[in-house]
Amino acid sequence: MRKPRKRSFAELVSENKSQLLKDRAAMEKIEMRLEEKRLGKAE
After folding, report:
1. What is the pTM assigned to this prediction?
2. Domain range spanning residue 25?
3. Is 27 within 8 Å of 21 (Cβ atoms)?
4. Would 2 be classed as within a structural domain?
């Protein structure tokens, strides 16, 4: 087994982003949390 080459930070970020975009449920959960934070600060 050969050692996989180290990925650059940019590659990891883009990979993460694409996985999140595929995972709509995760995106919606994050959006809900952000919305709650915004509403909490507004009061």
Report:
1. 0.41
2. 7-38
3. yes
4. no
Tens of pLDDT along 15-30?
Answer: 988 887 788 888 888 8
Considering the domain boundaries, does residue 29 fall inside one? yes
Angle between helical axes of 24-42 and 9-22 (0-180°, round to 10): 90
Of 8, 29, 7, 26, nearest in space to 17 by CA: 26
What is the number of structural domains in the chain? Answer: 1
Kindly report, residue by residue over 33-43, the tens digit of the pLDDT: 999 988 887 66
From CA 7, how far away is CA 12, in angstroms rounded?
7
User: CA 36, CA 21: separation in Å to the nearest integer?
Assistant: 21
